[in-house]
Amino acid sequence: MRPIGSSRHGTAEAIAQANGATRVALEGVALFEATKGLAALAALLGWLSLVHHDVHRLALELIGHFQLDPTSHYPALLLHYVDELNVTPLRTTVLLGSAYIGLRWIEACGLWLDRAWGQWLGALGGAIYVPFEFRHLLHEPTWQSALVVVCNIALVGFLGWRLWRRRAGIGPGVL
């Protein structure tokens, strides 16, 4: 016979604690996604403020200020992408940036409000990156790359688990 206030899944207190922890985790993911949108907005506004400047020259000055070799890997990568962005039409940059920002904020809102569509957006959005992150890990194995892959898989798994529970009809009162 079970004690009063318990279910086959555990005591009511244990269930409440676990549900509180998953709620905090979901809100943490929502804040992270909103922060990514905010960072993208800052980057887009920063880029727009540089539209009528020679950005390649500014990047070279920045590289020189930190006394880096412009032919080394990361400074050369910066110069490459500055040049790529310079030839991209401004309208395309603004539209893609705005779409990314909007998607991140919509996802964050859906996650914060614990909506299924927000969890779907998060799970699918995270799952899209996994093959590329894994490929990068195989080509350049670093602990940072491994951490990104593990965190992204954990995020997709967590959101998938929440969606599975919702689909199975397991309410917030039962773990």
Describe the model.
- The two termini are 20 Å apart.
- Helix 2 runs antiparallel to helix 3, helix 4 (90-112) crosses helix 5 and helix 5 packs antiparallel against helix 6 (143-168).
- The model has no long low-confidence stretch (mean pLDDT 87).
- By secondary structure, the chain is an all-alpha fold.
- It has 6 helices and 2 strands; from the N terminus they run ββαααααα.
- A two-stranded antiparallel sheet has the order 1-2.
How much β-strand is present in the residues? under 5%
Structural classification? mainly alpha
The percentage helix is over 70%
Say how many strands there are: 2
Helical stretch count? Answer: 6
Mean pLDDT: 87
Q: Give the overall form.
A: elongated
Q: Which sequence of strands runs across the widest sheet?
A: 1-2
Low-confidence stretches: none
Return Rg in Å: 22 Å
Order of helices and strands: EEHHHHHH
Largest sheet report: 2 strands, antiparallel
Report, as a whole number of angstroms, the end-to-end distance: 20 Å
Features:
single chain; 175 residues; mainly alpha; two-stranded antiparallel ribbon
List the helices and strands and how they pair.
Blueprint: E1 6-7, E2 10-11, H1 12-49, H2 55-65, H3 73-87, H4 90-112, H5 116-139, H6 143-168
Antiparallel strand pairs: 1-2
Helix pairs in contact: 1-4, 2-3, 4-5, 5-6
